TrEMBL record, chain A:
Keywords: Cell membrane, Membrane, Transmembrane, Transmembrane helix, Transport. Pfam families: BPD_transp_1, BPD_transp_1_N. The chain crosses the membrane at residues 12-33, 108-133, 140-166, 196-214, 250-276, 296-322. Residues 104-319 form the ABC transmembrane type-1 domain. It comes from Telmatospirillum siberiense. GO terms for cellular component: plasma membrane. This is ABC transporter permease. Its main location: membrane. SUPFAM superfamilies: MetI-like. It is a multi-pass membrane protein. Belongs to the binding-protein-dependent transport system permease family.
From TrEMBL, chain B:
Pfam families: ABC_tran (PF00005), oligo_HPY (PF08352). It comes from the Bacteria. This is Dipeptide ABC transporter ATP-binding protein DppD. GO terms for cellular component: plasma membrane. It comes from Telmatospirillum siberiense. It is a peripheral membrane protein. Keywords: ATP-binding, Cell membrane, Membrane, Nucleotide-binding, Transport. The keyword Cell division does not apply. Its main location: membrane. It is found in: Cell inner membrane. One of its GO terms (biological process) is peptide transport. The gene is dppD.
Length: 329, 339, 304
């Protein structure tokens, strides 16, 4: 056990080391986008207040450092970030960071709910497909996986609303809680969960297919290895061999790919949040687009990337935990 | 003597080929039987068939395998699982790939213990540490938590052996246990295996292509060629007594070592048997006939049966050698100047 | 949403000749035949060709502007034989919308895949071929772009620029190249020490010639497989963008039709179901082609 912890510790250091340049690059890219945005903050503010003379504009530009060179503005931007400031949204009349942080938990719940669901369901389907590879169960599930893989999640969400909300009336069609219900305790939790089901299905569907296909391929690959024969020679039950030997080894490539798709998961969340009126970062980003509030939009992009970096780091740590050979490579 | 494992007329087919053809074999309690042959001769397929561990693509076409009096062929999967790892166990050629890379070595030993004996986690751990000590892995309590990649090849094979003997099996099948190891390590591993055989009074089926190993460690020898057993005798008789009766065995002997009795051969160098191993499902006659210096017309038409050629000595040849030489009808020794 | 098949092995068979490598496993003439013999690829190809034909001949089949009102509003499919798939709340022909929508979807899919392929192959080839510091930097760049959520990046780009087919394709392509770059880099790393590359070097060929004329043709198999999957993901991303109202407002697209139909989800759900089904079928056909190509080009990888 202590060996494992050491490994994870070493990995943590490496992750931090790698994340820093990524974050820096992210910040610079974001700044470049800000430069490209038509009009500057002064235009926006002036537009909001409705009255702007050339004099007040210059004053505003001076206040926001917009009259400086690009390099100077970048420094000012970095300085702001160092103080955890992403700017101010005139539209919402609130600091951008506060706006985003208020929406962040909603997105995280949806994202990790879908990730967990997709992972577990995908693993089960993939394990079944590999155990019966070439048989009818495998064929049927392969077709299902391919269909899920080809269908937009938001459309699955809409169709699920038609079926489960409109026709069957089982589940709510939108929002993250029953409005004005003032529930407490378990009722509150249940209400939240009921609202979470359909968005999770919509967001998870595509990733269920990815994990299922991947699990199938990875398990079939591991199946060919000698230690599987050793495990059989020990007299273990085939299911036990499947789970504690084959699946355990197959998890390593599966988690790697899970990391690669985290960004896509967040991207999918943007659309699904719109379908279900789910109060998250994605919907905030779209509201910002409609309002032409680019500070908020770019803040969302920056923070979303942070979320992906952190989630990737978590997956790297999980990897270090799962694979004892990791330090060797 | 009492046989603990008896295979009768065992035939195993893989898609497109018959790997094992009518093999009859018995292993006595406590002995080391060496199963010798080139790669592709069906040794490993025979071993896997004895364990009923053949891959799904393989089929046992005929034959019976009796182990401690029960017929394994009729046994349900659950009963077979109760035998595997407990009464019969197996070690393989490649200890690196045969161990699970993401499970600690101790955990892999404890797993087989807990499968077959109702032990607590703690008890299984203690027993596994004892087993690591038994196979002479230094500092076993600390090594328990290490992973296969932390160990050397020899150490890994020791772990495999510890796993195999964990439940005190009656029969250990060792499939080329030293082929992947350094020469210096090979003797250590074989010595360990032999010591454990005595200590735990188990039988060992030693699969190898190395007659040097056979001469040193085996009680009896069965030679396989193209899916059939072509000769079966005691090691003493083969190496010190009358010598091989089958020309193939003699070819193997010559290619392995220039024997002490080098006077039979003009060159004290390694010889090779000309040609390659034939497909067991191929020709109707003796599979070795195309490579055999003493082959005659009979050999091409029907396979020679495995018959007694001396006390406890079986050979499948129409013209068995006597005293390691071809009988006079086949001409002189020069005809067998193999290679 | 860019997706790559789990692991793609480098092409194992490399024939050594006079510095000019033989085209990988399958010659140019045998590849089409192998695809036609593969039922998965064939099915995908047939569906895909149907969509392509629909896109190409949309103007002939439905000469009127699909945004025009042509019949009674909200006709269900089958209700009026003149409008086989019904009409929407504005009396627009759904079938005409689907046909014209195929244009936008396939066009964006193809252009963005070309952009992604171009950037990804270039970055991967240069990094994998030269190695060293250049490689380190490009790997960082690739990882960096992989970190940014493609969808959000596309939204930002389209929001800042004007939404047009070209800009949407660019936005999607810029977000999807890392997959190709990783793949190409792996291929180049394994091929750069190959005998035919050594032979080319000994003949004094320049780096550019070796990269594009010697190595790239041998590294193409997995790239081709991934390209079809890229088009598929691009179609999905485009549909999401236009669903969010970030598509080209002057062009009918499937995502846009879903967004319009969504307002009548409770009563006229066919307005949502039909374009969604079209997306699903088109993307499915691309994925089938990808799977089939994978079977043909990387036979070792097939399960069982």
């Amino acid at each position: 056990m202590s060996e494992r912890l050491h490994r994870v510790g070493r990995c943590l250091r490496r992750v931090v080391f790698q994340a820093v340049p990524t974050i820096l690059g992210m910040v610079i890219l974001n700044f470049l986008f800000l430069q490209l945005v038509p009009g500057d903050a002064a235009d926006v503010l002036a537009g909001e207040s409705g009255s702007a003379t050339a004099e007040t504009m210059a004053q505003l530009r001076g206040r926001f450092g917009l009259d400086q060179s690009v390099a100077g503005q970048l420094l000012a931007y970095l300085d702001n970030l160092a103080h955890f400031s992403l700017g101010y949204s005139p539209r919402y009349n609130a600091p951008v960071l506060d706006l985003i942080l208020a929406r962040l938990p909603g997105t995280l719940i949806l994202m990790f709910g879908a990730l967990g669901t997709a992972f577990i369901v995908g693993l089960i389907i993939g394990a079944i497909m590999s155990a019966w590879a070439g048989k009818w169960a495998d064929r049927v599930l392969s077709v299902v996986a391919l269909l899920l893989y080809s269908t937009p999640g938001f459309w699955i969400g809409l169709m699920a609303i038609v079926l489960f909300s409109v026709h069957l009336g089982w589940l709510p069609a939108g929002s993250d809680a029953t409005i004005g219900a003032h529930l407490h305790g378990l009722d509150f939790l249940f209400d939240r969960l009921r609202h979470l089901i359909l968005p999770t299905i919509a967001l998870a569907s595509f990733f269920v297919a990815i994990y299922a296909r991947l699990t199938r391929a990875a398990m079939l690959e591991v199946n060919r290895q000698d230690f599987v024969r050793t495990a059989m020679a020990k007299g273990l039950h085939p299911w036990r061999v499947q789970i504690s030997h084959i699946l355990r080894n197959a998890l390593i490539p599966i988690t790697t790919v899970a990391g690669i798709h985290l960004g896509n998961l967040l991207g999918g969340a943007v659309v699904v949040e719109t379908v279900f009126g789910w109060p998250g970062m994605g919907r905030l980003a779209l509201e910002a687009v409609m309002a032409r509030d680019f500070h908020v939009l770019l803040g969302v992009l920056l923070l979303a990337s942070f979320v992906v970096i952190i989630a990737n780091a978590l997956i790297d740590l999980l990897h270090a935990w799962l694979d004892p050979r990791i330090e060797v490579r | 003597m009492n046989a603990i494992m008896e295979a009768t007329n065992l035939t195993v087919a893989f898609p497109g080929t018959v790997a094992v053809q009518g093999v009859t074999l018995s292993i006595q309690a406590g002995e080391t039987l060496a199963l010798v042959g080139e790669s592709g001769s069906g040794k490993s397929a025979t071993a896997l068939a004895l364990m009923r561990l053949l891959p799904a693509s393989a089929r046992i076409l005929s034959g019976r395998v009796r182990f401690e009096g029960t017929d394994l062929m009729g046994q349900p999967a659950a009963a077979l699982r109760r035998l595997r790892g407990k009464r019969i166990s197996m070690i393989f050629q490649e200890p690196m790939t045969s161990l699970n890379p993401v499970m600690s070595i101790g955990g892999q030993i404890a797993e087989v213990l807990r499968q077959h004996e109702s032990l607590s986690r703690k008890q299984a751990r203690d027993r596994a540490v004892d087993l690591l000590a038994l196979v002479r892995i230094p500092d076993p309590a600390r090594r328990y938590d290490e992973f296969p990649h932390n160990l050397s090849g020899g150490m890994r094979q020791r772990v495999m052996i510890a796993m195999a003997v964990a439940c005190n099996p009656r029969l250990l099948i060792a499939d080329e246990p030293t082929t992947a190891l350094d020469v210096t390590i090979q003797a250590q591993i074989l010595e360990l295996l032999d010591g454990l055989r005595r200590q735990l009074s188990m039988a060992v089926l030693l699969i190898t292509h190395d007659l040097g190993v056979v001469a040193q460690w085996a009680d009896r020898v069965a030679v396989m060629y193209a899916g059939r057993i072509v000769e079966q005798t005691t090691a003493a008789r083969l190496f010190q007594g009358g010598g091989p009766a089958h020309p193939y065995t003699r070819g193997l002997l010559v290619s392995t070592i220039a024997l002490d009795a080098g006077k039979h051969y003009r060159h004290a160098r390694l010889h090779e048997i000309p040609g390659t191993i034939a497909d067991a499902a191929g020709a109707p006659g003796c599979a070795f006939a195309p490579r055999c210096p003493g082959a005659h017309s009979d050999c091409l038409h029907r396979p020679p049966p495995l018959e007694e050629v001396g006390p406890g000595h079986l050979a499948a040849c129409f013209a068995p050698l006597s005293n390691g030489r071809l009988s006079s009808s086949h001409g002189d020794d020069d005809a067998l100047a193999l290679g | 949403m860019s997706v790559s098949p789990p692991t793609l092995s480098p092409a194992p068979s490399i024939a050594m000749s006079t510095g000019e490598p033989e085209a990988n496993h399958l010659s140019r003439r045998r590849l089409p035949r192998a695809i036609l013999r593969n039922p998965t690829a064939l099915a995908g190809l047939l569906i895909l060709l149907t969509f392509v034909a629909l896109a190409v001949f949309a103007g002939v089949l439905y000469p009127q502007d699909p945004l025009d009102m042509v019949g009674a509003p909200l006709l269900w499919p089958g209700q009026d034989p003149e409008f086989l798939l019904g009409t929407d709340s504005m009396g627009r022909d759904v079938a005409a919308g689907l046909a014209h929508g195929a244009r936008a979807s396939l066009l964006v899919g193809a252009i963005s895949a070309v952009i992604g392929l171009f950037i990804g192959t270039l970055v991967g080839a240069i990094g994998g071929y030269f190695g060293g510091v250049v490689d380190d930097l490009l790997v960082r760049l690739t990882e960096f772009f992989q970190t940014i959520p493609t969808m959000l990046l596309a939204i930002v780009i389209v929001a800042i620029a004007e939404p047009s087919i070209g800009m949407i394709s660019l936005a999607i392509g810029v977000g999807s190249w890392p997959t190709i770059a990783r793949l190409t880099r792996a291929q180049f790393r394994s091929l750069r020490e190959a005998d035919f590359v050594m032979a080319a070097r000994s003949l004094g060929y320049g780096d550019a010639r070796i990269i594009f004329r010697e190595i790239l043709p041998n590294a193409l198999a997995p790239i081709i497989v991934t390209a079809s999957v890229m088009v598929a993901s691009a179609v999905l991303t485009e549909s999401a963008l236009s669903f969010l109202g970030m598509g080209d407002p002057n062009v009918v697209s499937w995502g846009n039709m879903i967004a319009n139909g969504r307002e009548l989800l409770r009563t006229a759900w066919y307005l949502t179901a039909l374009p969604g089904g079209a997306i699903s079928l088109a993307v499915l056909s691309l994925n089938l082609v990808g799977d089939g190509l994978n079977d043909v080009l990387n036979p070792r990888q097939r399960g069982e």
